[in-house]
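Exercise: predict the fold of this chain.
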Amino acid sequence: MKYNETLEFVALCLTLSSDEKSVSKIHTLIHNIDWDSVVKVSTAHFVFPAMYIQLKKAGFLEYIPVELVAYMEHIFELNKERNEAILNQIENITRILNKENITPIFTKGTSHLLDHLYFDIGERMVGDIDLLIPKEQIQQAENLLFENDYQHFFEGKDNFQPENHRHLPRLVNDVEIAAVEIHKEMLEEKHASFFNYNSIKNTLKEINFRGTKLYVPSDEHQLVLNAVSLQLNDYGYYSGKIILRNMYDLLLLSNKVNSLKAIQKYPEIFNYLNAYLAISKKVFSNHKSIIFQKNIASKFYQYRCFLFLNSRKLTLLKNNIEISARIIKKSYLHISRPILRVQLFQKLRSKSWRKKKVIAIKKAGKKL
């Protein structure tokens, strides 16, 4: 199977419980599937456990090799245990901060776990715990976590963070399972003025977790954050990224709120968000839940993303440009550090280094 064919199959699997057409399509395809490719792509896109749940609910496990089903079950259970530990960690963090009258807002993957977005909490693969804190309390919050055995993940030059960055350096705790990122903003500085702590704080959802009050953004704000995180913070709009984990979250959120109405409230970044809805809808075979504004820009964006998806040479070129742009930006942020600038140009001139970065991106799930 080609990469784009495998991606299409995985995306179909993710819609089994919400689209009857996907069931009939999977029935047609499942007898001629390269399962090695499916495992690689679904793992790279962080949706392997979610795909397993969808196939199980739809009764398709009997068509899958027994050894693979056992592996799926094992990975799913491991991920479920990890997410349960993350929920315990969230509860502990909240209690630590609440003692000093700091109320964190949990965002992205952790907010979805708390808000029961998934059929089973084992579906979602979560990396960090992202929490949003008012700007005036962010340093106090970090100090409180320091006092409770958290420390910076990196020390020295690798821990450098520009003052205007949206979150503090990542924190870890030797006895906790997930790293923690304390955010003062949800977006990069130039976009932060219209989507921030103050703009979402009055519509928060309160979650009662074992008697502890936890807070997450409203469904609408969770959808908008899902879009801006990939499109703006991670430069997905420019690179044409297709990340199924993000898009699966969008699909589930679109079952709860009107996606187009949600993004229309942000005219300053509407085109970026609408493009994301457009490509997500196409990836999920025009799923009815995702609504976007059809126009020339959204149609061209769909064409551009799938052009890269179907062309290895164009994707290699795109990834090389993206790598160089990221390193140049990092050098700009570290402009006060001459040694890092020298290292930058040494890396950019090295073909072997660029090749290694492309391989790393492939392993991380960015299309090659």
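Check your answer against the key: The chain has four domains: 1-64, 78-217, 228-308, 311-368.
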